[in-house]
Amino acid sequence: MLASLERLLILQERDVRLRRAQTELNHLPVEEKQIAARLAAQSTEFERLKQQARHIESERKQLELQVGTKEEAIRKFQTHQAQTKKNDEYQAMGHEIERARKDIDALEERELILMDQYDEAQKSAQAESLKVREYERVAANQREEWKKKKTVLEEQVKTLTVEIAELQTQIPPAELSAYRRILQSKGDLAIVPVVHGTTCNGCHMKLTQATVGAAKSGGKIVHCDNCGRIIYWTLP
Ligand SMILES: [Zn+2]
Predict the structure, then answer these.
(1) Distance, CA 188 to ligand 1 centroid (Å)?
(2) How far is the CA of 9 from the centre of ligand 1 (A)?
(3) What is the mean pLDDT of each run of 10 residues along the chain (236 residues)?
(4) Contact criterion met (CB below 8 Å) for 232 and 1
(5) How far is the CA of 16 from the centre of ligand 1 (A)?
(6) Domains assigned to the chain
(7) What pTM, to 2 d.p., does this model score?
């Protein structure tokens, strides 16, 4: 194989690794954002459940106050009833007391329902709080892993960049720029092997006899007739 083609292949291998490392690096903030969004959503849900429990509790306290007011009223009716000499007033107070007691019964019944609802809401909030804490732990571990991964990837990028710069000085400028141009336009590989002795492994099209022959002899850099990638012969 041509010495410059060998160097180009090494360069391509480094280029591919560099691209992979950079892609992974670029993806880290995306993953972090997803974790943060999930954490925020869970915290919001926890707050909502807590708020719901507080709301139920305050509604129940309102009812308790209303019961107190009714009880106070009953005491006044009873005092009035004890003091009055008039039979119709005595009876009217009796009705008022009876009505207030019925109101109290209804209020207390509603209070019991709210107490149950409060317990349920508290349980849900507690369960959600456990979930939040658990996920916070997962997220913290994940962030720690990313930090390590980021350091490794950044180190790789640095090393590869130096290696690539060094390799590029060893390749004739015309070949290097041809390689870069193909790599840029194809996005994956600029140099591919001939497979099955007939086919370009980049575009998977059959090569002409002449092209295959040229690649096989290895005297110069040969391009695929179809896609323009540099091809090389791997069979003996
Ligand atoms: Zn091709």
Answers:
(1) 12
(2) 16
(3) 90 97 95 92 94 96 97 96 94 96 97 97 95 94 95 98 96 94 95 96 97 93 96 88
(4) yes
(5) 18
(6) 20-171 (1.10.287.1490), 172-236 (no CATH)
(7) 0.72
How far is ligand 1, taken at its centre, from the CA of residue 190, in Å? Answer: 10
Span from the CA of 82 to the centroid of ligand 1 (angstroms): 110
| φ and ψ at residue 202, rounded to 5 degrees | -90, -55
Cβ contact 109:60 at 8 Å = no
For residue 119, CA distances in Å to 92, 112, 133 come to: 41, 11, 21
CA of 226 to the centre of ligand 1 (A): 5
Token pair for 135:
């996920």
120: CB partners within 8 A, 6+ apart:
none
CA distance linking residue 197 with residue 53, whole number of Å = 74
SS3 188: coil
175 CA from centroid of ligand 1 (Å): 18
Nearest residue to 65 via CA among 117, 118, 112, 107: 107
Question: Rg of the chain over CA atoms, in angstroms?
Answer: 41
Q: How remote is the CA of residue 232 from the centroid of ligand 1, in Å?
A: 11
CA of 192 to the centre of ligand 1 (A): 8
Query: How far from 15 is each of 116, 159, 191, CA to CA, in Å?
Result: 65, 12, 12
From the list 192, 190, 215, the residue with the least C-alpha distance to 204 is: 192
